């Protein structure tokens, strides 16, 4: 018979309860109040700074860089082929290579134009948006359980319960 990893206990955890049941209702408001505190006037500037800096590079930026590199490489090949033609190389020899380089350049340019440009809010726009919510704790508390779950997951929120202190640490 296999033992569940979750129920296997380390000797140092012998006094740890086997199970811990927490009512969501006891945690939601304190967690939302803590989150809302991040947007309070005393923390807002620091939170907005973190939001702005977290925008950084995205996958689209990396794709753009790779496509620009492909375009530059294709352009380099085309220039090299043109110089070869200027030195007297038979054009028939270079037709396939030039067509391939031009096709690569055109394809990469087409892909580059189809990548959406992410609009990244400025600090002022974040501040205006946050201000428009008013009481952030009330807004968070008013959300549906599904909305809260999605928000907590997006924030990578973790809750660690300490049964002997009967306290939860949120990070």
From TrEMBL:
Protein's name according to its UniProt entry? Recombinase family protein
UniProt organism field: Nocardia pulmonis
């Amino acid at each position: 018979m296999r033992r569940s990893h979750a129920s296997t206990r380390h000797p140092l955890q012998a006094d740890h309860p086997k199970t811990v049941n927490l009512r969501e209702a006891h945690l939601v408001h304190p967690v939302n109040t803590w989150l809302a505190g991040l947007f309070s006037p005393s923390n807002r500037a620091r939170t907005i700074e973190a939001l702005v800096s977290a925008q950084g590079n995205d996958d689209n930026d990396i794709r753009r860089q790779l496509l620009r590199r492909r375009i530059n490489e294709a352009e380099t090949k085309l220039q090299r082929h043109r110089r070869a033609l200027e030195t007297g190389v038979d054009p028939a020899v270079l037709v396939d290579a030039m067509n391939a380089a031009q096709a690569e350049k055109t394809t990469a340019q087409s892909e580059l134009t189809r990548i959406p440009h992410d609009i990244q809010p400025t600090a002022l726009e974040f501040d205006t948006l946050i201000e428009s919510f008013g009481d952030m704790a009330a807004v968070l508390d008013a959300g549906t359980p599904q909305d809260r779950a999605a928000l907590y997951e997006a924030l990578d929120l973790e809750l660690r319960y300490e049964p002997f202190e009967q306290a939860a640490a949120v990070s």
